[in-house]
Design goal:
By secondary structure, the protein is of the alpha/beta class. Helix content is 31%, strand content 16%. α12 crosses α13 (276-288). It is globular and about 65 Å long. It binds ligand MGD (2 copies), iron/sulfur cluster and molybdenum atom.
Length: 754
């Protein structure tokens, strides 16, 4: 029997609504949902392959438990018994920080990943938290924390209304956008141009996005902070800085010109390899546009000055009066955001409240750099215990973080490791217990994270499209049971975890004077919650307490889970609106334009004015049909141009004696890898590019298709020593490498192997 079911796509940040075709409990097709209030029918090749992703035969169906060194199929009961024993033994013997928690990217794409890791961390009391954020957007969190007092207050470009978009180190035509949730990002860029707006792209590669732009600036990798600082300099120098209505909300504006005085267009031109005249034009165009937004992503974050670049993105938005105004960059307001409290001074954002044990890296947003995970396991010191046990949820750091070889060994040496992962891959192969979540069609979906980053306020929820197969456990229940097992409550009712959270949240809400439930009885409120299970009741609670909520009856027209369920294609909550000063949590209650940690990092940027790379530098790239490390096992999403090749410019190829299609050796501080050369003038001279997420050639994995065309792990070129100091984010772009053709003998072996 064939039927259809709605499901929000979890495969990237665009959050498109899909219509799945379901035949006998199996997803056999997927198309864009034309009635979706946000995505309006858009779908990309990944979303269209939802069925293939969902039914990959290599997905694990039952838990695995290590017995006598071998991973064997086990019951859920055996698996959680092993987790409780493994984690508790380590925690009780060596203390809470000896249990590390590693959270990967898919946690922001699942209901379970949003609701349970915070409870796990609180219950464990560990400071050893490592996530994909420190190989990604941590610099943006830190700059937002410092500017606005809230690390999660990230302004989003108003794509649909802006007149001018300056896009730095992002390639949404392949990635479909990031920290800017916009289904059909490509179509929205075309619409910008169609309404007479302009698009400028700053990227060392002439990407598909750059080809769409009115202007493409092929900056030297790692130098965006210099470029942006010089643009700010020009705005001051030419009297173009005009924050307009923002002025009363700003602190530190007068100190900025002096802080940026050294960064003249002429001073940065050499380092950025961008003409001073172009820098001036970029600044003037930004100032002249009726509305404009500066937006930076991976290429501006995963670099040595990632926090400064992220800070300067918003400084430019402020100086041109574009922060918090329609057509500029605004703060979204999601339906599950906490009840907005009245504006006023907050607690501010602190960095370095504790440090990593081995190299004393400061924490940021409660996290330590994932680049330091291996050393925190394999290096004893006099101070405290190394990490002896690790809980991994939806992460594959052996491929996604620097120096996978070292991490691979370190994970293999642990007393205990548990992975919540659908695959036995490069990381989970080290686990003592693997807990596989069901495929996405069997899971509910709501975008807790991405709705706070969306170009339009809206809310959508989809229940599982097909029921759980026999023997499967919902990921929400897996994580609730994991919380219990890891925190000494093994065997208790997992529904108790949700009940506890509800109890605490409502208990707090009724005490907040600005809450719609102020003064009410939390027990009565809890009884009003609807939903089929704990996670749904928690969603209902968040919606009802949130900015559009019914306030548990205070506003009968407001949002509830039941209302959302009655709108299966979602509810539109309108365009982004100006919100300042309400989102600010700084101590001054203002936007703090020159916070002390930023000012203290500027001398390092000044030193970079004179830096010139001696040889080649490497940058990454994404392919439309990829998703970090874990979609290479789906045949329809691999092959064609989605290959792990080294892009290099024809002139560099010629100089090095490298020919198209032939294998080259790439060497970096952390090691070397081999990949076929792809000679292309889409990369600028002096820059080579390898995609990440490849390197599926380790034994003991169960991803057969990926292993057949493993590619090389670009992160092996890194030794984990290069970080943006303020955020602890790994430097993944602009890293120095050496490239050489493989010698004939080695080439033969390479060809035999590939
Ligand atoms: N050189 C270089 N390195 C990079 C990047 C780069 O641009 N260049 N990008 C970085 C970025 S932005 C990121 S976000 C990181 C990503 O880093 P990770 O999060 O470590 O890597 P992913 O490949 O996203 O793998 C996530 C894991 O989750 C599993 N998984 C998939 N779906 C689910 C699910 O529903 N539930 C659970 N529990 N698990 C699931 C997958 O099998 C996989 O093992 O990589 C980073 N690494
Ligand atoms: N198809 C696909 N979509 C994805 C993912 C995927 O793996 N595949 N991953 C998802 C994830 S986890 C994320 S975080 C987002 C990322 O989303 P994006 O940031 O849009 O990702 P990328 O496509 O890597 O684009 C980064 C661009 O920065 C450029 N770049 C490198 N170094 C520099 C530099 O120093 N300066 C400048 N200005 N540019 C530089 C690169 O050439 C590249 O074109 O994509 C998400 N969407
Ligand atoms: S753009 Fe992203 S969310 Fe939309 S269908 Fe493609 S992978 Fe899914
Ligand atoms: Mo990411």
């Amino acid at each position: 029997m064939s039927r259809t079911a709605l499901r929000i796509c979890p495969l990237c940040e665009a959050t498109c609504g899909l219509v799945l075709t379901v035949d006998d409990g199996r997803v056999t097709g997927a198309r864009g949902d034309r009635d979706d209030v946000f995505s309006k029918g858009f779908v990309c090749p990944k979303g269209a392959a939802f069925g293939a992703v969902d039914s990959d035969p290599d997905r694990l169906r039952t838990p695995l438990v290590r017995v006598d060194g071998e991973l064997r199929e086990a019951t859920w009961e055996e698996a959680f018994d092993a987790v409780a024993a493994g984690i508790r033994t380590v925690a009780e013997r060596y203390g809470p920080d000896s249990v590390g928690v590693v959270l990967g990217n898919p946690n922001v794409h699942t209901v379970a990943g949003a609701l349970y890791p915070p409870v796990l961390l609180a219950g464990l009391g560990t400071r050893s938290l490592f996530t994909a954020s420190t190989v990604d957007q941590m610099p943006k969190h830190v700059s937002s924390g410092l500017l606005f007092g809230d690390a999660n207050a990230i302004p989003v470009p108003d794509l649909d209304r802006t007149d001018h978009l300056l896009l730095i180190g992002a390639n949404p035509l392949e990635s479909n956008g990031s920290l800017c949730t916009a289904p059909d990002f490509p179509g929205r860029l075309r619409a910008l141009k169609a309404r007479g707006g302009t698009l400028t792209v700053v990227d060392p590669r002439r990407t598909r996005t750059a080809r769409l732009a009115d202007r493409h600036v092929a900056v030297r990798p790692g130098t965006d902070a210099l470029l942006l600082a010089a643009m700010a300099h020009v705005l001051f120098d030419e009297g173009l800085a005009d924050p307009g209505d923002l002025a009363p909300h700003l602190d530190g504006l007068d100190e900025l010109p002096a802080a940026l005085a050294d960064f003249t267009p002429e001073a940065v031109a050499g380092a950025c390899d961008v003409d001073a005249a172009v820098v001036r034009t970029l600044a003037r165009e930004l100032a002249a546009a009726p509305t404009a937004a500066v937006y930076g992503r991976i290429g501006s974050c995963t670099v040595p000055h990632g926090t400064l670049a992220s800070w300067l993105v918003d400084v430019l938005n402020v100086l041109t009066g574009n922060l918090d105004r329609p057509g500029g960059a605004l703060f979204p307001q999601a339906a599950t955001d906490r009840t907005p409290r009245p504006a006023g001074p907050g607690r501010g954002f602190a960095l370095g409240r504790w440090h990593s044990r081995v190299r004393r890296h400061p924490e940021a947003k409660g996290e330590l750099p994932i680049s330091a995970l291996a050393e925190e396991i394999d290096t004893p010191t006099d101070e405290g215990e190394p990490i002896h046990a690790v809980i991994v949820v939806a992460a594959n750091p052996v491929l996604s973080a620097p120096d996978g070889e070292r991490l691979d060994k370190a994970l293999g040496s642990l007393d205990f490791m548990v992975s919540v992962d659908p695959y036995l891959n490069e990381t989970s192969r080290h686990a003592h217990v693997v807990l596989p979540p069901p495929p996405p069609a069997q899971s509910p979906h709501h975008d807790f994270a991405f709705n706070t980053l969306a170009v339009r306020n809206q809310v959508r929820y989809t229940r599982p499209a097909v029921p759980l197969e026999p023997g499967r456990m919902a990921e929400t229940e897996i994580l609730a049971r994991l919380v219990l097992a890891a925190t000494g409550m093994h065997g208790a009712d997992p529904a108790g975890v949700d009940a506890l959270v509800i109890d605490r949240t409502l208990g707090k809400a009724v005490k907040e004077p600005h809450s719609p439930v102020h003064g009410r009885d939390p027990k009565t409120l809890a009884d009003l919650l609807t939903g089929e299970n704990g996670p749904e009741r928690r969603l209902d609670m968040m919606l009802r307490l949130g900015p559009y909520g019914d306030g548990f009856g205070a506003d009968p027209d407001g949002l509830t889970l039941q209302k959302l369920l009655a709108h299966p294609h979602g509810i539109d909550l309108g365009p982004l609106r100006p919100r300042l000063p309400q989102p600010l949590r700084t101590r001054s209650g203002k936007v703090e334009l020159l916070p002390e940690p930023i000012a203290a990092d500027l001398p390092r940027l000044r030193a970079a004015l004179d830096e010139r790379p001696g040889g080649l530098v490497l940058v990454g790239r994404r392919h439309l049909r990829s998703n970090n490390s874990w979609l290479h096992n789906v045949p329809v999403l691999t092959g064609g141009s989605n290959r792990c090749t080294l892009h290099l410019h024809p002139e560099d190829a010629e100089r090095l004696g490298v020919r198209d299609g032939e294998p080259v050796r790439v060497k970096g501080a952390g090691g070397e890898v081999t990949a076929p050369a792809e000679v292309t003038d889409t990369v600028r001279r002096g820059v080579v590019s390898l995609p990440h997420g490849w390197g599926h050639d380790r034994p003991g994995t169960r991803t057969r298709h990926a292993a057949a065309d493993p590619g090389a792990n670009v992160n092996q070129l890194l030794d984990g020593g290069l970080l943006d100091p303020l955020s602890g984010n790994a430097v993944l772009n602009g890293i120095p490498v050496e490239v050489a053709p493989l010698t004939a003998a080695v080439t033969e072996t390479f060809e035999a192997l590939t």
